[in-house]
Write a structure and sequence with these properties.
Radius of gyration of chain A: 21 Å
Helix content of chain B: over 70%
Order of helices and strands of chain B: HHHHEEEEHHHHHHHHHH
Oligomer: heterodimer
Shape of chain B: globular
Structural class of chain B: mainly alpha
Number of strands of chain B: 4
Number of helices of chain A: 13
Number of strands of chain A: 12
Strand order of the largest sheet of chain A: 6-7-8-3-9-10-12-11
Chain lengths: ~350, ~325
Amino acid sequence: MTEQPFLRVNDLHVEFPTEDGLVRAVDGVSFDLRKGETLAVVGESGSGKSVTSQAIMGLINRRAATITGQVLLDGDDLITLSEDEVRARRGRRMAMIFQDPMSSLHPFYRIGDQLIEAVRVHNKVSKAEARNRAIEMLQKVGIPAAAQRVDDYPHQLSGGMRQRVMIAMALINDPELLIADEPTTALDVTVQAQIIELINELQAEFNTAVIIITHDLGVVADIADQVVVMYGGRVVESGALHDIYYRPEMPYTLGLLASVPRLDQDRSDRLDPIPGNPPSLISLPAGCVFCPRCVYQENVYGDACLTTRPELLDAAPGHRVRCHIPSERRKEIAQEALRVLAGEGK
Amino acid sequence: MGVYVIKRILIMILLLLLITFVTFLLFNALPADVARLTCGKTCTDQTLELNRIRLGLDQNVLMQFWQFFKGIFVGRTYTGGGSVIECPAPCLGYSFVRNEPVLGMIGARLPATIFLALGAFILFLSIGISLGVYSALRRGKLQDKTVMGISLVGYSLPSFFIGLILIFFVVLKWKLLPFPSYVQPWENPVKFLQTMALPWIVLSILYATFYTRLTRSQMLETLGEDFIRTARAKGLSESVVIRKHALRAGLTPIVTAAGLDLAGLLGGAVITESIFSLPGIGAMSVSAVTNPDQAVLIAITLMTATFIIVANLIVDILYAAIDPRVRLT
């Protein structure tokens, strides 16, 4: 653990000025990631998880947004590097796959040409060499008859196959960081598991650092080492996988866990959604951002929830929580909630 | 693909037949008596009747149509009125106003129109697409608003206004160019360019404004697509992202519009040709209307229709070349 993390995100802020006001899409996000590790970023739509990942990749137009903080990729701060320097790293040292494989590939170009393009942006190699690399990579991601499929157009492939092509394209230059933004959301359930398995295998083979962005806690359990839970543009809880699953403390995390369907539950039991809607990122509540939806807020003395922003504090080594509820009480609430989830006393 | 093209060409021929027939019906319904118009000043009832027979106007529309149609393949002989007039195949009719076969008249007028259309086409497409991309990339900024404002003004100005203003300032007041008088480019290239410059500019202003707006909206749409984000994530430079990925994806409607516009221009830019006294198809149709010449009008209508139909076919084939998802069947 003395090794310097490959990626360090430090107090990242992303703000978009709009006609309705300033949108604080990402508000002080920090985390570390080592090679070979997988970090899951979890949260609802609008929690800032996608913007965080795009800010790391440098995919947010610097003229359209104010980005501050640090994104240290192997020691280099991507926020202060020039756009050309960031671009030279994009697709080579860090790569990204996206939610919708149907629309993420260019419909007018053969997948082979799109892969060859990805190789040749960063490597001075002949078209033939790049094509061989493309076929090799397509085989690696499990595309049957890759030597023939390389000349297919995206519309000739199924959704799962297209996501495999996206993964092949992302990993073709052997990047050290892979960001997967909801890679399975648009796919069939059976295909989802295959894609997650594929990412896992390739990560082990290439020792890649992986950030997986998802709202699917089932996926998280399969793949993550570390988990960051985001809400309203900020981190509300972070820790190792077992911290989040077995010792969660933040009420929002409890809410997420409660909204996962379970097969072992009686079908008459309805899912417990978190009441209310995510906050508007333009007019965030003055106190705890989650407060308006929190069912445990009476456990906080006074009106701190409404007036004071809670800090992200260590609850245990490596486990950080942003909540006003006293630590002991939080643990009691969480254990009680987990017992209910496990199907007792409901 | 081959089968598709053959099928389309067959349909095209049928369509042209239909258009010819409808054109005949329309001109037949006109109140003007063509026989009288071609009769001359000293017109007696006898010559009028002979004229009518010579023009085939004594027969019903179907027969007239058949004569015309047959003439295209085997030529046509107009008899009656003492003289015999030969119109060799392919005969698109005979102008009794000008006393020559229509085909030759069109042949003499076509170069000016083709040069005007092609020159303007290249100009307005390159200007329109570049400005559209430029505008889209600076969306909402001052440059974008300026380009959009100017293009709106340009789009609203009628061509005769732009043409006359240009002649007034460039030719008459500043004497930058000689007064337009058309020569074929192989006779005097410099004079040709001097004459064509202003008409090209007029048509470019007229059409480029439309293509600027079209390209801008297409670019704004495609720049928001997921595959553009993918292209950026690969580490491609912004210019490759725009040219190779965004513009290519937004090209289809531009190709459609451009194909039809080119076909339309080849059918004669009536106003522009008239203002700059270019001896083109457009100017010829104007004189064929004011000095009624049915044969010429029918031939021009047919020619323009053919251009449009052929352009449509080419556009459809280009579609398939641009977008692999389009299947030609």
